[in-house]
Amino acid sequence: MLLCLPGASADPLTPQVQVITHPSVQVDALSQAQLRSIYLMRQVVWPDGVAIRVFTLAPRSAANLQFCRDQLQLFPYQLERVWQKLTYSGTGTPPTELQDQQAMLQAIAATPGAIGYIGKQDETQGVKVIPIKP
Amino acid sequence: MKLRVLKSFQLSLSSGLLALCGVFSASAADSWHWHGFVAQGLIQADQSNFVNDDGDISTDLTELGLNGSYKLSPGWRLSGQVMYLDGGNRYATGWRIDYLFLNWTAVNSLDWQLNLYAGRFKNMHWLYSSTRDVALTRPMIVLPQSVYFDAFRDIAVGSDGLALQSTNSTTLGELEFIWSYGATPINREISQRVIATQIQGDTKQKFVHQATVFFRPADSQTQWGISLLDSDFSYRRAPVDMFFDGDFTVQRVMANWRYSAELWELSSELVQERVHARGFYLPVFERNQFAQGAFLLGSYNWSDSTRLYASYDWYTANKDDRGGALLSLQSGGLIPRYFGYQRDWGLGVTQDLAKQLRLKLEYHWITGTGRLGPNVVPAIEINRSRHHDLWAVQLMYWF
After folding, report:
1. Chain B partners within 8 Å of A77 (Cβ)
2. Domain of residue B309, residue span
3. Which residue from A34, A81, A90 is facing B169, i.e. has the nearest CB?
4. pLDDT classification of B17: cutoffs 50, 70, 90
C-alpha cells in the first residue's frame, strides 16, 4: 500500500505519483498548467461549478516532493510561499494537509470536488484517476 | 506594553475560537478560514535613527495579526485582517485594519481566472509587497529599502479602492495581470515619518494607480515582472507652518525577476522613481528628480530546516547626483553627501525550530543614509555617520 519514493529502480522520466479526484468530478484529464492552477489555489471550482477541495501531504514527504517536481514542475518551497502569500493577503486559502496517503485516499473518496495524489502503484478504489497531459 | 498587547492577542484568539465553535455549524465552517501570526524580535541600529533615536537595543520588532475569510457564495468571498505593528521609527505603531475587501471571482475556468477586489486590499504589484509585514513570508527581517522603504510603508502597503487580478495559463507559460486604483489615508504620524518631524499640515494621497504584468514561462523556473505606478499627493499647510502648500507626483517604473532552483533561489527588483515637487519648500518651488534602486537577494537551503541568505541593495536619491554632491551643495553644506545614497550588504540565517516556529537572525552593513526617514527633511542631527550597521533577531509563530 505504501509508496516507495524515491525508488532507486524507478524510471526517472515516469511520474511516481498519480492524481486522483472524487469520482463525481466531471473532468477526465488535466494539463500540467491546469493542475498547477488548482494547486496554486487560483482555480477554485470545477467546470460544472462544484468547489474544488485541494488536499496535500506534508511538504517534505517523499510523495509530495515527487508530486511537486513531476506533476507541477515546482519545488515545495515555491508552493508554500504562494499559499502563505494567499493566506496572509486575503486573496486565497491554503489546501488541507493530510498525514499520509491512506488519509489522502479516504479524504478524496469521501469529499465531493476533492483532488489529491497518491503513489502510482497504490490502490485507487473509490477514487478517480486523472491523467495529466504535459 | 508588549505583554499587554500579547495577552490581548491571546484573548482575541480564544474568543475567536469560542465564537467559531458556538456560531458556525460544520458546513459553515467549511466556508470560513482563519489564520494568524505573531513575531517578536530584538533589533539594534546604533548609529542611525532607523529603529530609535538613541541607538539602543530595542524590542520594537513586533508583528502580529489575525485574519479571516468567509465564502459568501462560490464566487464571492469577504476577507479581513487586523494587525498590530511596532517597528519603532520605521512605521506607525499600533493596531490597524490591514485589509478588508470583497472578492468577486468573475471568471474561474481551467485556463483563465479573473478576480475583482473592492475595499482595502494589499499592494500585490511587487515581489514581497502583499505580505511585507508578515515575518514568515518575508525573505529577510529588514527588506531591501531601495524598493521597500519602511518610512513609506504605511502608504505603499495597500489601498482603499478597486483591484483586478487576471491569470492566464497557456502553452507558453502563465501570464498574470494586476491592476489597482485607490488611495491611502495619511495621518500626521505617517507624514512625520515620511516628510519631516516638524510637519503640521495635512497630507493627502489623491490617488495611486498601478499595473503589473508577471510572466512565468513554461518549463522554466524563472519569473519576470514589470510594474508601473502613478500617484499624486497634496500638502496643505497649517495656519502656523514652516512649509507651504505643495503638490507631489510620484511615478515608479519597476522590473523584477526570480529564479528558483531546488536548493537555492535568486530574486531581484529594479526601480526608477520620479518625484515631481511643486511648492512645499517655497510657493514657487519646482523640482523633478529621478531616484534609482535595485537589489539582488540570494538564498540557499542548507538543510530542510536551515536557510542562509544574502542581499545587496543599492539606492541613489538622484540619478544625476549619485554621490550626493549636489544635495550637499544645494543645502549650503547642511545635508551631508551621504544622504544622497544608500548601499546595504545583508547576511542572515533562518532556522525552523518546529513546523510553525521559526527563528531569523541577520546583519546589515550599510553605507549612506538616503533611505532613512524622514525623507524630505532628513534627520541630520541623528544620522551623523556615513556607515551604520544593523542587526536583528526575530522569533515567529503562525497558524
Report:
1. 260, 301
2. 33-398
3. A34
4. very low
pLDDT digits (tens, 9 = 90+) for A49-107: 899 999 999 988 999 999 999 999 999 999 999 999 999 999 999 999 999 999 999 99
**B27 assigned to some structural domain:** no
Listing DSSP states for B1-64 in one string gives -HHHHHHHHHHHHHHHHHHHHHH--HHHHHHEEEEEEEEEEEEE-TTSSSS-SS---B---EEE
Q: What is the ipTM of this complex?
A: 0.88
Residue B131 lies inside a defined structural domain of this protein: yes
**All structural domains of chain A:** 26-133 (3.40.190.10)
User: Is residue B13, in this structure, part of any structural domain at all?
Assistant: no
Q: How many CB pairs under 8 A join A and B?
A: 89
What is the C-alpha to C-alpha distance for residues A59 and A65, in angstroms, rounded to an integer? 7
Q: Identify the CATH number of the domain in which residue B387 sits.
A: 2.40.160.10
The answer as to whether B298 is a domain residue is yes
DSSP string, B251-293: EEEEEEEEEE-SSEEEEEEEEEEEEEEEESSSTT-EEEEEEEE
